Amino acid sequence: MKKNKLEYQILVFLLIGGLATTIDFVIYNYLFSFFSINTSKLISMLSSSLFSYFMNKIFTFNKGKNYNQKYLIKFYVIFLLNLLTNIFVNYYVYKLTSVKLLAFILATLFGMTVNFIGQKFYVFK
Q1: Positive or negative: CA dihedral 13, 9, 113, 63
Q2: Using one digit for the tens of pLDDT, what is the confidence trace for 30-56?
Q3: How far apart are the C-alpha atoms of 22 and 56, rounded to whole Å?
């Protein structure tokens, strides 16, 4: 049973993450024309994080009916780790390759890993 629950959570997390990543990517690409790569990434991630928080709280970890400020505080602690990972990877991959899409994809993959582990075992445990 635990394995099935974990598999379900990972699947739903990936689906919500895909939607959040789409939001992130669209905003990031738009802002990249006006701001630095780091500022664009920061704003796009903050925007998509709100979507991610509410959707994962409700659908992935089934905590939707329980409003508790501690979830939001813990979420943004993990978000900060995710953000730092994401910006760091995005910046250095772009600096090394000058390929914005590759930088975005690798940053997202690293950030997603940090994010799932943090939400599963810290935020919504």
Answers
A1: positive
A2: 998 999 988 998 899 889 988 988 898
A3: 16
